[in-house]
C-alpha cells in the first residue's frame, strides 16, 4: 500500500498532460482511464475529431460521467496516443519504445495518420528479435505493406529468426502462420533461383549474339589479325569496340584454319567454331551474298535434314539469340540517339 502511494505520488510529480505545449486551451472536459486505473485529462472535441471510434464512444457518454477507458497497453502508450491527437507527431524515442502499442491503438481507434507513422517506424526498426511479433500484429491490424516487409525480412534472415523465442512461440501457438511463412520463403527462393537462371541464360544469349556480330564483322571488314580472304592483310584494322569477344573469335578462326583434327570431330575448339558457323547460318538472311564460311552449306544441310530430333532445341536457341541481338541493337540505339535516324531510313 505504501509503495503504491509512493508510486502514484511520483507519477503526479512527473505527470505532464498530453496537451501541454498546445498553447491556450480550455479546461479539459473528460478523463481517459488506462488499464491500471490511471487517469489522463483530455478534450473530448480533439479526441472525437482525431478518431471516429472515440467520437462514437464520446457521443454515448453521460454528461455527468465523462470518462472512457483505453486498456491493454501501458499508461505511457495511451499518453503518447493522446498526445498524437493534439500534435500529430511522435518522437523517435516514443516510436522506439511504444511503436507496437501505438500501432495497435491506431488500428483499434482508427487513426490513419498515426497508423502510417507507425507502419513506417516499425518497418524501419525491424530486427531478428521483433520481426515475428510485428508480423503477427501487421496481420491482425490489416497492414499488408508492413506484413510483406516482415515476410521479406524473415526470408532474408530466416536462420537467425528461427533461433528466437518469438519464433518458437509462434510454432507452438500459430502453426497456420508458420506454414504461411515457410511457404512464402519457399516461393521466394524458387523465384530467386528462376531469376538467377534466367539471367545466366540471357547473358549466354547476349554473348552468342555478340559472337555473331564479331563473326560477321571479321568476315566482311576484318579486324586486327583476321579478315576476308580477298583483303590485304596489311589493311587489317585496329581493335574494334567489342575486341574482347572479337579476339576470342579471331583465335578460334585461326585455330580452325590450321587444326589437323578438325574433320574427325575430336577437337572441342573446332566443334565450337562449327557451332558458331551453324548458328550464324541459322540467323543469316542473305546466304547468297554472305562471306561467312560454311553459311550456304549449313543452310542447304538444314533444308535437306528437315526437322530432326534436336531441331526444336536448336530453333529455340536461334530464337533467343535473335531476340538478344534485337535487344542489344535497340539498347545501342537508345544510348546513341543519332543512330535512330539511320535505323528508320
Ligand atoms: Zn573486331
Ligand atoms: Zn581444332
Ligand atoms: Zn551468312
UniProtKB/TrEMBL annotation:
GO terms for biological process: regulation of DNA-templated transcription; response to hormone; response to hydrogen peroxide; response to salicylic acid. Keywords: Metal-binding, Ubl conjugation pathway, Zinc, Zinc-finger. Residues 28-94 form the BTB domain. Pathway: Protein modification; protein ubiquitination. It comes from the Eukaryota. One of its GO terms (cellular component) is nucleus. The keyword Transferase does not apply. The keyword Nucleus does not apply. InterPro entries: BT1/2/3/4/5, BTB/POZ_dom, SKP1/BTB/POZ_sf, TAZ_dom_sf, Znf_TAZ. SMART domains: BTB (SM00225), ZnF_TAZ (SM00551). This is BTB domain-containing protein. It comes from Salvia splendens. The lineage of its organism: Eukaryota, Viridiplantae, Streptophyta, Embryophyta, Tracheophyta.
Amino acid at each position: 500500500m505504501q509503495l503504491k502511494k509512493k508510486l502514484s505520488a511520483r507519477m503526479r510529480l512527473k505527470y505532464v498532460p498530453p496537451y501541454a505545449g498546445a498553447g491556450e486551451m480550455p479546461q479539459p472536459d473528460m478523463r481517459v482511464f488506462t488499464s491500471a486505473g490511471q487517469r489522463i485529462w483530455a478534450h473530448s472535441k480533439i479526441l472525437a475529431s482525431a478518431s471516429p471510434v472515440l467520437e462514437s464512444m464520446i457521443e454515448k457518454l453521460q454528461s455527468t460521467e465523462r470518462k472512457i477507458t483505453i486498456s491493454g497497453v501501458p499508461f505511457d502508450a495511451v499518453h503518447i496516443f493522446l498526445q498524437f491527437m493534439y500534435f500529430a507527431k511522435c518522437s523517435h524515442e516514443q516510436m522506439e519504445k511504444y511503436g507496437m502499442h501505438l500501432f495497435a491503438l491506431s488500428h483499434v481507434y482508427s487513426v490513419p495518420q498515426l497508423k502510417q507513422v507507425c507502419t513506417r517506424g516499425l518497418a524501419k526498426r525491424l530486427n531478428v528479435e521483433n520481426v515475428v511479433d510485428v508480423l503477427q500484429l501487421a496481420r491482425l491490424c490489416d497492414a499488408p505493406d508492413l506484413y510483406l516487409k516482415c515476410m521479406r525480412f524473415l526470408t532474408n534472415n530466416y536462420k537467425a529468426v528461427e533461433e528466437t523465442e518469438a519464433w518458437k512461440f509462434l510454432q507452438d501457438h500459430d502453426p497456420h502462420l508458420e506454414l504461411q511463412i515457410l511457404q512464402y520463403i519457399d516461393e521466394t527462393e524458387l523465384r530467386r533461383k528462376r531469376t538467377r537462371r534466367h539471367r545466366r541464360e540471357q547473358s549466354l544469349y547476349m554473348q552468342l549474339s555478340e559472337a555473331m556480330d564479331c563473326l560477321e564483322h571479321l568476315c566482311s571488314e576484318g579486324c586486327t589479325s583476321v579478315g576476308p580472304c580477298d583483303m590485304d592483310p596489311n589493311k587489317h584494322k585496329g581493335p574494334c569496340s567489342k575486341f574482347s569477344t572479337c579476339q576470342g573469335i579471331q583465335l578460334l578462326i585461326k585455330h580452325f584454319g590450321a587444326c589437323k583434327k578438325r574433320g574427325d570431330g575430336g577437337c572441342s575448339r573446332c566443334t565450337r567454331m562449327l557451332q558458331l558457323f551453324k548458328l550464324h547460318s541459322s540467323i543469316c538472311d542473305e546466304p547468297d551474298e554472305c562471306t561467312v564460311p560454311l553459311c550456304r552449306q549449313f543452310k542447304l544441310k538444314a533444308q535437306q535434314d528437315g526437322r530432326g530430333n534436336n531441331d526444336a532445341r536448336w530453333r529455340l536457341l536461334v530464337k533467343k539469340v535473335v531476340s538478344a541481338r534485337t535487344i542489344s541493337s535497340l539498347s545501342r540505339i537508345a544510348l546513341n540517339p543519332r543512330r535512330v535516324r539511320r535505323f528508320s531510313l
